[in-house]
Amino acid sequence: MKQIRVLLAKAGSDGNNQHALGIAQLCMAFRDHGMEVISTGLRQSPEQIAQAAVQEDVDVVGLSSLSGEHRLLFPEVVEALRARNAVEIPVIGGGIIPAEDISYLEEKGTKKVFTSDATADALAAYIKRLVGPEYMAPKKIAHIGIAVRSINKSLPFYHDVLGLTVEKIEDVDTEQVKVAFLKIGETRLELLEPLDEQSSIHRFLDKKGEGLHHLAFEVDDLDERLSVYRLQGIRLLNKTPVAGADNSRIAFFHPDASGRVLIELCQHEEGG
């Protein structure tokens, strides 16, 4: 996942030790989430904040306020960015902000306003979702899973008729399946045969018969992605990665999260 750059700024004149500590804590928390954080310090003007955002080429600006100056300063930062043709940089805000001011600020261009009880994890999850698909898009389709009752009986069609090459056949004990990988372009077909009646593939075959089982997407940051999805409340079958075939680590979304299409994320270790 590409590293996200965040500019944290305290607009206005209400800088104090409490505010400095809050900014420092946010910086540490966002860095723990893999972000690069630039802090402008306290008592910065909207013009200074906007100029720093452009010069540092950040992905998002985070503003903080404790004094009530947010009604003027947050919109002024938005306008200062617009004056620099940097409307693509979203502005989010937080602090001691009355509920009745939130809609006003968002109408004036602040993308999202958080109250003081919002956690750093919630803020980080929102930022990762906000900055766009370019940071979250998988690398490619790793494979298409197909449930079969017998790999030996299914292989002749894929190998002899379609002419696909069998790369490997192996047992995956954690999933109680036998798998066969067949190369096609930059992706693969994965034939899945249950090893016993406890296998989820066995239950799938009993219920739906042979056919398409799942789509698998290749990623290089599986642990980080799962932490983001958990914070967003997205339903997962695996909250942490498990061992998969071909020297990989995998995790599945719950089908309810993806329109009843079973989606797997996989990350191959070196040599996989």
Task: Describe this protein with a few key phrases.
alpha/beta, Rossmann fold, 2,3-Dihydroxybiphenyl 1,2-Dioxygenase, domain 1, eight-stranded mixed sheet, 13 strands
The CATH superfamily title of the largest domain: Cobalamin-binding domain
Please give the order of strands in the largest beta sheet: 7-8-9-6-10-13-12-11
- Helix/sheet category: alpha/beta
Report the end-to-end length measured between terminal Cα atoms.
19 Å
Low-confidence stretches: none
Number of separate strands: 13
Q: Helix coverage percent of residues? A: 25-40%
Helical segment count: 9
Overall pLDDT confidence: 88
| Helix-strand pattern | EHEHEHEHEHHEHEEEHEHEEE
Strand content: 25-35%
Main pleated-sheet profile = 8 strands, mixed
Shape: elongated
Cα gyration radius (Å): 24 Å
CATH architecture of the largest domain: 3-Layer(aba) Sandwich
Oligomer: single chain
CATH C-level name of the largest domain: Alpha Beta
Number of domains: 2
Q: What is the CATH topology descriptor of the largest domain?
A: Rossmann fold
